[in-house]
Automatic annotation (TrEMBL), chains A, B:
Signal sequence annotation: none
Transmembrane portions of the chain: 7-25
GO BP term, pick one: amino acid metabolic process
Cofactor: pyridoxal 5'-phosphate
Family, per entry: Belongs to the alliinase family.
UniProt-recorded name of the protein: Uncharacterized protein
Length: 453, 453
């Protein structure tokens, strides 16, 4: 018996020791695996775990209260934990802040996090190649276009910049006559941002189409014309083609919204100069990262030179993060991100359409279902913005009508349209959309008298 | 005995269980501590552990070979692990790539790493404040200037931008007459980068000082003059003051190098518009992060507006990283980073000076020891660049003389000087400096005939 107990004792001890050793080994190994990065990882997870009632978020670089980053609340929410809704709050649907994708990145936290070492890419250049763009990043961009089928990139040049704003300036510069006495004439609302010797803003394209000889297939060599084509269009989400034509006309395609979140993909775009931005693909507006896909080598070099003089190089920190985000975007052939994005935007459009279908005072742009080569099926509209029209004769200032109902949109005049149009952003966070919809519902119900308020 | 064994057995089991439970608990806790961030942390440490023989580095966004980022070698080194020195390699001392600080960040890996979550600051703005700059970051910038004593920031505005390149453009824009028929006239080499309606490059300041009425204390109201003052000066490291004066003269101080690494701090600078860049403080050139300290509210707002139109906002990814880097820079009252930086630059200057002291063919700029208010002692020169002069009558093209000895510098003409001057960068990585010094030693030894080669 003693013998048996002794054997059991030894066995128990050995087993326990082995188990202890195993745990010791695994914890040591985990410490070994994580040395210098561990503190930063813990710090990030602590901040991420701060509870803001689902109506806000704490960030690593947020304002500290008692050494802890405080909650930054969504619009209309206040309080230390963002739990209090502000009565009478205005529904702000002005900006195109793409926070509808934030939940996707919360869900994909593990695959989308990046650790930036203190010594990461301190140099201006990448050491070996003396280039200033990550090859891997460029490959990911090409791969994404191939997978989604929204742009041809084979044999094209890619240049990256700080968001599409800067790339648009760079492209105008690249397409303008160098040192010419008559600068390029520009067409499209963005032009108010430019003020350089190279370019002069000439107004909305449609005005020029009628009043000059620059309609399709005519040639005017006295000046260079640069036309911006935003497709899908901002504000109304329709796919667009160039209006002007001729040897003196250069066209810049802003394809910021040409992704399955917002539109059916018709075919790979194959234009001379096409501009994209991370902001509307992954939703990272704050990273300020865009790229141009360019056919012509000279134009590519002039764009790259402009960016080089303007900022030297796109920040390496963002290049690293963009690489990681695009690698997640590519997962499952893109179906995870773009499936999520399309579903979210489609749902919002349906809800808003249903709400406004009861109204005769307000109408929305008409968007038809289309066959999407990416999803391989007919998809219903899922635009980034609603292009609302006030139909009543007396509602000339639609922005004002909405404002008095507690809704802020962007005036139609910003897009060269009548003031009876207003753009409403549908791609902000869920709280913003929910509150916008409530205000719209309330406004529509007024049409049927006080009983339905 | 059986009883005793039984007690022992229970005790052993309990103890073992407790020990097991303890390890189980600690590993669970550590898993709990690190959930979503762990993969990214492991990934970063694996890449950091790639050995490149001390002559290169692997980066997270490097080109992959067999799924692993490959070594990116320092200049003159090649091979899969960068262990092979390229015979006859040219010593490239052209660029101001501040890699002399890389070892500091390797040493401070744990405190300087940052984990960027996939959902980190996707929005254009910071939620609560609707600002686009982190308050904590701005506070860190102010604190750093206060600790180092190199600039007054109390009651001043701070605006951040993409490196100092963009801020210089923005400041010129802000100081130029708005829509005026006669644009601002600019003085300093940087002006070749600008090409806008607002400004025209007029040449080197010293030419104007003599040839126009714009010497000190005269007033010319017919035009606006913008003078750039780089202090410490690039290339020669001397502290500079404005040359032009008068009510029509605006001055922009580029204080990129006004840090204890490169110069004794005389007193807190207190100019109207002062520009700084992270590149020359922490060495992170690739992050493209700069800031302007501005006295006048109107000028501040025009700079901010220019940056807003140009890029909308400085990338949030870099803001987060800059915050972390500056918090490390502030450790120990800045003594760790600036102590390291000064020591490194001082050592290089001494070595180069000693080497060239044997030469009558080449000379260096003369820099005197000065009292540094930051280190609270007299410090010897530690400039970012050597401003080398070829003294021999026949060595008119100094750049060519050096080139044929296997050294690439930057031509004096780039800085408006004679071609018998060349700028040599002293702030690159250690391999670059070591090889430069060897080439210089070899060149100097030629003066004494073949015996000493």
């Amino acid at each position: 018996m003693a013998e048996i107990h002794g054997v059991k004792f030894v066995l128990c001890l050995s087993f326990s020791l082995l188990l202890n050793l195993y745990f010791l080994w695994t914890s040591t190994r985990s410490v070994k695996e994580l040395s210098w990065s561990k503190g930063a990882a813990v710090e990030a997870e602590v901040v991420a775990s701060v509870s803001c009632s689902g109506h806000g978020r704490a960030f690593l670089d947020g304002v500290l209260v008692d050494g802890k980053p405080m909650c930054e609340c969504n619009s209309c929410y206040v309080g230390a934990d963002c739990s209090h809704f502000l009565d009478g709050c205005i529904a702000d649907a002005d900006s195109g802040d793409p926070l509808f994708l934030e939940p996707f990145w919360m869900k994909n936290a593990a695959s989308s996090a990046v650790v930036v070492a203190g010594w990461h890419r301190m140099s201006y250049s990448f050491r070996d190649s003396h280039t200033r763009t990550s090859n891997e990043l460029e490959n990911h961009i090409r791969l994404l276009h191939a997978v989604i089928g929204n742009a041809v990139t084979e044999g094209r040049y890619i240049v990256i910049g700080v968001g599409s704003t800067q790339l648009l300036s760079a492209a105008v510069h690249a397409l303008s006559p160098n040192g010419s006495a008559s600068p390029a004439k520009l067409y499209k609302a963005q032009t108010k941002y430019f003020n350089s010797e190279d370019s002069k803003w000439q107004g909305d394209t449609s005005l020029w189409e009628n009043s000059t000889s620059l309609s399709k297939n005519t040639t005017d060599t006295s000046a260079t014309f640069v036309e911006f084509v935003t497709s899908p269009n901002n504000p109304d989400g329709k796919l667009m083609k160039a209006v002007l034509d001729g040897s003196s006309v250069k066209t810049i395609y802003d394809h910021a919204y040409y992704w399955p979140h917002f539109t059916a993909i018709e075919a790979p775009a194959d234009e001379n100069v096409m501009i994209f931005t991370l902001s509307k693909v992954t939703g990272h507006a704050g990273s300020r990262f865009g790229w141009a896909v360019v056919k012509d080598k000279d134009v590519y070099e002039r764009i790259a030179q402009y960016i080089n003089l303007n900022i030297l190089v796109a920040t390496h920190d963002t290049q690293l993060r963009a690489l990681k985000l695009l690698s997640v975007a590519l997962k499952g052939g893109g179906k995870e991100l773009f499936g999520f994005g399309y579903k979210a935007m489609r749902h919002r459009w349906k809800k808003l359409s249903r709400s406004l279908s009861k109204s005769s005072r307000f109408s929305l742009q008409n968007l038809e279902p289309m066959y999407c080569t990416y999803f391989e099926e007919v998809t219903g509209p899922s635009p980034a913005y609603a292009w609302l029209k006030c139909e009543r004769e007396e509602d000339k200032d639609c922005h004002e009508v909405l404002k008095s109902a507690g809704i802020i949109g962007r005036e139609g005049s910003v897009f060269g349209a009548e003031s009876r149009y207003v753009r409403l952003s549908l791609l902000k966070g869920q709280d913003d959309f929910d509150w916008l919809l409530e205000r719209i519902d309330a406004l529509v119900s007024q049409e049927y008298g006080s009983r339905s308020i």
